[in-house]
Amino acid sequence: MSAAERKIQKKSVSMPKQNPEVRIRNFNEVALGYNEEQALAEAERCLQCKNAPCIKGCPVEIDIPVFIKLIRERNFEAAIKKIKEKNSLPAICGRVCPQEEQCQKYCTLGKVGDPVSIGRLERFVADWERERGFNIPEIPASTGKAVAVIGSGPAGLTVAADLAKLGHKVVVFEALHLPGGVLMYGIPEFRLPKVIVQAEVDYIRKLGVEIRLNHLIGRTYTIPELLKRGFNAVFIGTGAGLPQFLNVPGENLSGIYSANEFLIRVNLMKAYMFPEYDTPIKVGRRVAVIGAGNVAMDAARSALRLGAEQVYIVYRRSREEMPARKEEIENAEEEGVQFCFLAAPVRFIGDDRGWVKQMECIRMELGPPDESGRRRPMPVKDSGFIVDADTVIIAIGRTPNPIIQCTTEGLAVTQWGTIVTDENGKTNIEGVYAGGDIVTGEATVISAMGAGKRAARAIHEYLTGKA
Ligand code: FAD
Ligand code: SF4
Ligand code: SF4
Questions:
Q1: Mutation test residue for ligand 1: of 87, 182, 408, the one with most atoms within 8 Å of CB
Q2: Is 170 in the pocket of ligand 2 (CB under 6 A)?
């Protein structure tokens, strides 16, 4: 049946989710994924547009109409193979990519109804393959060249996979005891189960990539040392893992966490499984989360699952400016997270044991747009008010850790500590490339992967003398 003959289904097939009352008592995945029948029905909606505008919204350039057509033909094996020509982490992307701002934003169907749920279809075939065992592509003979990749987040893993598939030896150096970067230590289990991250990292290992954990580059080795030790090129994918703070009085009180610490305890150290795992976490009855991005939503929803009675997001702008994914804001609301817009904390107040018990906030109003394009929040005079909070989680942004920059003489960095590169990730030092959050500042999984892909191409050209 041609697209013209088919009646266009304007509504996408919805994805089953755990019921909110049930899911706030567990850390299991909220979105349950399509079954085969649902995936086929959603794939059927695709118009197979000749110009495929959806592809231009995908930073790793997946051939979307072709993989959807293969799903339609029930050839799931070929569909995932097609995706993996471009994307080595499809089960992850299918879950956490901000699809509404990427591929799906450009989908032709979006003009008359819901865009095709490209991410959900990607997740469906990625899960289908994982359950049956990965197909490992044939790797060409060794080129004799070696690349050191620093950091095992989505940028580093993408560079590593793409270069290994071209026959280069790749060693990933990771500071933490588990690979995956934010995918492992930041995004909670209920959005991205760690077995999925582990499985896709294992796939990359099977491509021949070696991952050395507990190696902090800048301390264990420096970049000049890596180049001297026989690596022909280095890729820096160290992310933006340094939390920002409000710098207001009382911020050092007990019970105030950076979202980084809070989420690392929960995800990486499995604090929600204490005492089976030995990292405890203390969450009070009233939890305030400052900020309104994905990190804030993750912290708020984790706090609810850890037993908080009331969790509220305090945000200095309004609902329209919230940077978190729409889907995750809706999930947070369904679970009972409350929102306090146009407010900002100016000080924290402690009890006589030094624990936070309240915070003073002021009202904000929105002025003209700032350099980010969003309307600038401005304090309203004499608008202070007190809010009770016995746990506070600060989720207002993250910046790069400066260790690499400080130990690599001559490396060009910006005033914000991000590394300067050209559009292909080349830094000002010969053979040294960078990409992901360390270059752009906090961004997204798929933009880090897109940067990794471009850098892998550039490194390959450099190593093969084509640059
Ligand atoms: P990272 O993922 O930060 O990985 C960097 C890695 O480098 C880390 O493993 C780190 O330990 C390692 N490292 C750092 N320094 C060194 C060193 N000196 N030596 C060795 N290793 C080092 N994006 C989305 O698209 N969708 C989402 O839903 C989403 N949710 C998020 C939720 C949270 C809680 C957070 C924190 C971020 C979220 N993001 C989301 C953003 C996204 O995860 C990041 O943009 C992305 O992970 C950046 O990838 P990266 O590879 O550049 O860095
Ligand atoms: Fe869309 Fe992300 Fe998949 Fe690309 S990787 S097709 S942007 S969901
Ligand atoms: Fe299918 Fe939408 Fe891409 Fe057209 S734009 S091919 S409808 S996914």
A1: 182
A2: no
First CA to last CA distance, the chain: 47
Ligand closest to CA 259: 1
pLDDT at 268: 83
The sheet carrying 210-212 orders its strands as 210-212, 169-173, 146-150, 233-236, 432-434
Above 70 in pLDDT, residue 95? yes
Express each pLDDT in 181-200 by its tens digit: 999 999 999 999 999 999 99
Q: Ligand 2 test: best mutation among 84, 97, 107, most atoms within 8 Å of CB?
A: 97
Residue 467 banded pLDDT, cuts 50, 70, 90: low
The reported pTM is: 0.94
Contacts of 234 (CB under 8 A, 6+ apart): 147, 148, 149, 150, 223, 226, 227, 431, 432, 433
CB of 448 sitting under 6 A from ligand 2: no
Q: 104 vs 274, which has greater pLDDT?
A: 104
**99 CA → ligand 2 middle, Å:** 6
CA angle (368 as vertex; 367, 370 as ends), nearest 5: 110
**Ranges of H-type helices in 19-96:** 20-23, 36-44, 53-56, 64-72, 76-84, 90-96
**How far apart (Å, rounded) are the C-alpha atoms in residues 336 and 421?**
43
Q: Whose CA is nearest to atom 1 of ligand 2?
A: 103
Q: Which two tokens stand for residue 80?
A: 């995932």
CA 395 to centroid of chain Cα atoms: 15
Cis upstream peptide for 275 (omega within 30°): yes
Q: Give the count of beta carbons closer than 10 Å to the beta carbon of residue 236.
A: 31
Of the pLDDT bands very low, low, confident and very high (cuts 50, 70, 90), residue 2 is: low
C-beta of 109 in contact with ligand 3 (< 6 A): yes
Q: How far is the CA of 52 from the centre of ligand 2 (A)?
A: 13
How much is the average pLDDT of 263-271? 87
| Helix-helix angle 326-335:294-305, to 10 degrees | 20
Mean pLDDT score across all residues of the chain: 94
pLDDT the model gives residue 274: 77
Q: Please tell me if the CB atom of residue 65 comes closer than 6 angstroms to any atom of ligand 3.
A: yes
Residues contacting 122, CB < 8 A, separation 6+ = 62, 67, 83, 87, 90, 93, 94
Report the nearest atom of ligand 3 relative to the CA of 65: 6
The identity of residue 360, as a single letter, is E
Reported residue count of the chain is 467
